[in-house]
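User: Predict the structure for this protein chain, please.
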Amino acid sequence: MTGYIPRWKTQRLRLVLEAMPVAVLTGMRQVGKTTLLRQEFPDWTYYDLDDPDVYLMAREQGRRLLAAPRVVLDEVQKMPELLNLTKVMVDQGKVERVILSGSANLLLMGKVTESLAGRAGYVELQPMTWREAQRLPPTKMIETLLQGGLPDASDRPATPSEGHDLFYLWRGMLPPLLRFHPGQEALVREWWRGYLRTYLERDLRSLSAVTSLPDFRRTMMWVAAATGSPLNEAHLSRELGLARTTVHRWLNLMEVSGVLHRIPGYFSSPTKRLRKRPKVYFSDSGLSMAAAGIPSPGQVQKKGLVGPVLETYVAHALRVYAEMLAPSAYVYYWQAVQRYEIDFLLEWNGHLLPVEVKARTEVQYRDFRSIEAFRKRFPQAKAGVVIYMGTELRAFGPDLWALPWWWL
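Assistant: Here is the predicted structure, written as structure tokens:
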């Protein structure tokens, strides 16, 4: 598949620009930010801080970058002082609209929200879902299920080539990867090798001093191996033989640079949610496998990582859909004191949707046991979903559904 694939978040970005003078577009490296901006905003004045000449001009004559009515500043995390200048120029009416873009999550960077408070809206661009890569609009199924409606069985995308689900989950869904297909595993490995090297040697150093890249790489491998598990920084620091403060700082760096996100535990009381350990996921299933050093789809299966790689994809897809809803939904996980656990929980407009992930091609009614236990406790959950590696949308009652992962 070649050519520009329209991104779902474009509409959200345009909406932010109607409401605010500044839009902040973030996302991990190679997620497609620059392509989106050049394709969707061709008439805007565009500056890329990756360009040495632009960087020098920004350093010496920053106001020249904001002299046009509508300006895009890409890779703006390389010069955070431009944020204060943007605030001044907007307040003085010297520039009408500005898009700030970067491979760092500017919302998590110190003093950024303070600089742009009341002036900026934030949009995170994530890796594509299967549907988005097929140039299809978002499915309405998530919103329908949250409200207890019946999913539309005709809303079906093209299936992955038979028997190759694992390849696509192992490969990942960043736009440059979409050109690689089963049989091209060596090319995928080389692509990820270059990606990780650039991330470690360039992106990280532009954000913060990392004293030991080998130790940082080892931390990434451990986190990748523990994807989907509650984060215990003390245990992780002991296993790695590193100071807990170092591990804490490096996890924050991974989050700021967009490669890692945390999903909090769900309690009916918001204050209790703050005390629940979050689960951690890499932002792309292919990145999690590359960081863990898994060289092929066959090794995913051999090492028992089919469940984690599928769960990583579902975590990413649900975050995409949660942010597409109006208002945005929240993604949690749920674990009862007893044996019941829900992999993901969407909360939206007073509705709850429990989602379980099963790395199997068949689903049985017993796979909904935790979902049913959750729904007895929380009647706001009008339906439940098991996402699996099968090929059909299946009903297990009027409000229990098994959904193939590639429908998302």
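Residues 9-124 form a domain with the Rossmann fold fold (CATH 3.40.50.300).
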